[in-house]
Amino acid sequence: MDVIRDAKEYVEELFRNDSGGHDAEHTLRVYRNAMRIAGEVPECDPEIVALAALLHDADDHKLFHTENDANARSFLKKHGFGQERIDQICRVIDSVSFSRNRGRRPDTAEGKIVQDADRLDAIGAVGIARTFAYGGEHGRPMSESIEHFYEKLLLLKEEMNTPAAKKIAEERHRFLEMFLNEYERETGQVPASEEEKEENHAESDHPLPV
């Protein structure tokens, strides 16, 4: 029995109708991030990392009304895992949520890896896309989605746990800053540069023919 394959199929079914940024594609990206980081952390248990990453949103409080990781525990129990192993995996899952673990770092290598893997998917180009997908699904105006950058996304670089994630986060953070600078320029929230002022002045001196 290939439990990793089954876990992928399980989350694809579980999130089949989600289009707000917490879909199966997000889960699979977190899984790939986690396994990439795990390759540089030899002391970690790769099976715990893989299953915690794949099941990390299976009981997300924003999406499901389950308690005590019921969906994840049910899946693991059906696949023959003992209680101790299930508890280990669920402890990692419980360390992932940003809102519920603000300022707290996991105390295991596996927890640090999966937390980093999930947070990496919240920044960079993918993080921007997910922010607006989630905002659109919940009827938020763009300005409210932009606030989320300052409330969470721009903070994540400094909260990474592992050297591998910190390195990836540096580049993705720079992309967030580039996007915000361009967004603010296009929406008129920052003063025009001297060059732009000169261009605008030149255009006003030479209006286009009607």
Proportion of helical residues: 55-70%
Q: State the oligomer.
A: single chain
Total separate domains: 1
The proportion of residues in beta strands is under 5%
Looking at this protein, list some descriptive labels.
mainly alpha, 210 residues, 10 helices, disordered C terminus, Hypothetical protein af1432, single chain
Explain the layout of strands and helices.
Blueprint (H helix, E strand, L loop, with lengths): L2 H12 L9 H15 L7 H10 L14 H9 L4 H12 L14 H12 L3 H14 L4 H10 L11 H24 L7 H12 L5
Describe the structure.
With 210 residues, this protein is an all-alpha fold. The chain has a single domain (3-186), classed as Hypothetical protein af1432 (Orthogonal Bundle). The chain has 10 helices and no strands. It has helices at 3-14, 24-38, 46-55, 70-78, 83-94, 109-120, 124-137, 142-151, 163-186, 194-205. Helix 1 runs parallel beside helix 3, helix 3 (46-55) packs across helix 5 (83-94) and helix 7 (124-137) packs across helix 8. The longest helix is centred in the last third of the chain and has 24 residues, at 163-186. It is globular.
